[in-house]
Amino acid sequence: MEKDLYMTISSKTKQLLVKQEGFDADFKMTVKGIQATDLVAFANSENGGTILAGVGEVEDKNSMQKGRIIGCPVGDKERLFILSKAESCVPPVEVAIIIENYARKPIYRIEIPSGKEKPYCTAGGTYKIRGDGRTNTLLPGRLLTLYIEKQSETFFNRFREATKELGKDILASDTLLQNALNELRRKVLQIESAIGSNQNSLEKIEAIDKKIDKLLSLQAKGE
């Protein structure tokens, strides 16, 4: 388990400071610069990412941007600010908060892993994903893909649980399976309502809905 206080700078932070902001890193001059949109963007990304607070940007001799430590206040107030931003996301975003360079100019390294409950949004319903050095809006097509990936995983997990008990209790298994299918349909209808008239997305939803109908029909016949 990684420790949460470094008197100097960790090797990971050194690697991030020598390059510009990208898919995996974001620099903030102060803790107050961290927004919920930054957290959901990394949580929605495939590999997550790192925010360094107390770090500005400077150009090197090749006119390339890189990080420069300026330091920032560290304490309970700052930590609670970061945690409140993470907890305000829907669902809450997991973060690891590490203090570095404590003996000189303290900075925060905030690690945001790729989330297990994608897609994430802010309390105001804003969906973001990390791009190359910036936070991008999560467009309907990509949002739909993330949502279906998550719901498909949930459905098949429930399906496996239902079929485990098939030999022991057929009736109970049928009930679990039907509940799982009905829940998946409900989620799909929610996506349809949220996305509106995006034709490509609606066609994908209709295809999934037909598959659910077929599964429900087979399940009702006991096949």
TrEMBL record:
Database matches in Gene3D superfamilies: Schlafen, AAA domain
Domain of life of the organism encoding this protein: Bacteria
Keyword Nucleotide-binding: yes
GO MF annotation, one: ATP binding
Record keywords: ATP-binding, Nucleotide-binding
Keyword Oxidoreductase in annotation: no
Coiled-coil region(s): none
The Schlafen AlbA-2 domain, residue ranges: 35-136
Cross-referenced Pfam families: SLFN_AlbA_2
Record-linked InterPro entries: Schlafen_AlbA_2_dom (IPR007421), Schlafen_AlbA_2_dom_sf (IPR038461)
Protein known as: ATP-binding protein
Taxonomic source organism: Dehalobacter restrictus
Lineage of the organism: Bacteria, Bacillati, Bacillota, Clostridia, Eubacteriales
